[in-house]
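Sample intake sheet
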Amino acid sequence: MIDGERWYRTGDLSHIDRNGVIHYLGRIDHQVKVLGYRVELGEIESHLREVTGCNIVAAVAWPLVDSSATGVTAFHCALGITREVIREEMKKRVPDYMVPVRVYCLDDLPLGSTGKTDRNALVRMLDEGKL
């Protein structure tokens, strides 16, 4: 309760400007909506680690259509495993909407200043057609 009102922590990041308008900036966690379903990207990444046998993995909600994700794109650094095998193994583990539509094997994944995978950089690479 704050000032007698009930508030909820939603995981949304926003900003109120001088005019009192709330601007939605994104999420502070890795929960996304894919085809209307709430998806925790960490859960997909956990399965990707098992399937690929590699700890260097990432998942992003992409592509976006009108700010809503129509699929999941996965990244990994494991050699010797095809995207078809990864998709087939993921189909055995997660619902269809969580199975990566696209899978990319990269030499390494971009890191942010904290040393964690920079998902925003991965999305920019996809948006710019660099993959």
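Comment: Residues 30-127 form a domain with the GMP Synthetase; Chain A, domain 3 fold (CATH 3.30.300.30). The CA atoms of residues 67 and 116 lie 24 Å apart.
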